[in-house]
Amino acid sequence: PRICVLISGNGSNLQAMIDAVEGGQLNAEIVAVISNRPGVFGLERAEKAGIPAHCLDHKDYPVRDEFDAKLQSLIDSVKPDAVVLAGFMRILTAEFVEHFSGKLLNIHPSLLPKFKGLNTHQRAIDNGDSEHGVSVHFVTPELDGGPVIIQSRVPVFEDDAASDLAERVQEQERRIYPLVLQWFVAGRLTMKDNKAVLDDHIL
Ligand SMILES: N[C@@H]1O[C@H](COP(=O)(O)O)[C@@H](O)[C@H]1O
């Protein structure tokens, strides 16, 4: 199975996928990494792993539809079985999302449906939550609203800063995202009627 990963920055989730492929936990090939920002560390991680790395700078496409159309054809050119958003910080158009419906996955650093959008760690702290976490979900046109596949919870400590919580959450991200991808490429995980289904069980 072929995986295409979209990033915007550091790429710690991408690195976890690269390591899982190299370690035999993820039986797939990462055939392309695409960033919407030039010069990010995630692109270096891809090059170091011998994966074709592409940058499609969204600043070159003032019209969102044009950026998404270009991105869609670049992704289609590598014929992926899964398109994986890993710290990809762009809102995608409904056309783009529909085109990859059922094979487009995202990781969001909160216990969805709580804290859709940005700054999730600080918002959990400001809200006085005792627990926080991360969700992997299928992408639908509703931002951070697609069917959730798996979540991992972490405690929030009184003296936590957002950076402490981010580190604790990212540790979980690196564990669960490769696992979900393995389920998907093994054909065990699908999206049906806006629901995530694993081994014929609705999640
Ligand atoms: N969407 C969020 O963006 C961050 C990106 O991290 P990285 O994979 O680029 O290190 C992650 O925390 C992810 O949940």
TrEMBL record:
The active site is at H108 (proton donor). It catalyses: N(1)-(5-phospho-beta-D-ribosyl)glycinamide + (6R)-10-formyltetrahydrofolate = N(2)-formyl-N(1)-(5-phospho-beta-D-ribosyl)glycinamide + (6S)-5,6,7,8-tetrahydrofolate + H(+). GO terms for molecular function: phosphoribosylglycinamide formyltransferase activity. Its EC number is 2.1.2.2. Residues 2-181 form the Formyl transferase N-terminal domain. It is an enzyme of class 2 (transferase). GO terms for cellular component: cytosol. N(1)-(5-phospho-beta-D-ribosyl)glycinamide binds at G11, S12, N13. The record marks D144 as: Raises pKa of active site His. Keywords: Purine biosynthesis, Transferase. Pfam families: Formyl_trans_N. Pathway: Purine metabolism; IMP biosynthesis via de novo pathway; N(2)-formyl-N(1)-(5-phospho-D-ribosyl)glycinamide from N(1)-(5-phospho-D-ribosyl)glycinamide (10-formyl THF route): step 1/1. The keyword Transferase applies. One of its GO terms (biological process) is 'de novo' IMP biosynthetic process. (6R)-10-formyltetrahydrofolate binds at R64, M89, R90, I91, L92, N106. HAMAP family: PurN. Catalyzes the transfer of a formyl group from 10-formyltetrahydrofolate to 5-phospho-ribosyl-glycinamide (GAR), producing 5-phospho-ribosyl-N-formylglycinamide (FGAR) and tetrahydrofolate. Belongs to the GART family. This is Phosphoribosylglycinamide formyltransferase.
